[in-house]
Amino acid sequence: MSDEATEGAKPDERDTGVLLYDFAKYLSSLALVILGGVVTLTSGAAVKPPARTLALVIGLIAVGGAFAMSTAYSVVRARLGGRALPARPRFNIFLAQALIALGTGAFLASWFRALQ
Description:
Radius of gyration: 18 Å
Number of strands: 0
Strand content: under 5%
Number of helices: 4
């Protein structure tokens, strides 16, 4: 298949749902890995960021992971019901990305500040 044939191709609704579901699974796994990294780095460290900052970081990442899992569930529910994919899962995946990124950035900033 040449690039010319696929250049203007728009994914159909099924492809969009599959991609969104896979991305939601990826973000859920990523949130768990990041949470594990935060707990590991702060549990045995001699220098720890403030407890309130850690609570905020863990909360942001956990809520982001919950939004990602909610997105995956919404996609599955829509597919099993034979309905079109609503707009809400697309907004939820945006929130999941933003919250996980904010939590990760806040942790890195507080971690490096605590190391100085």
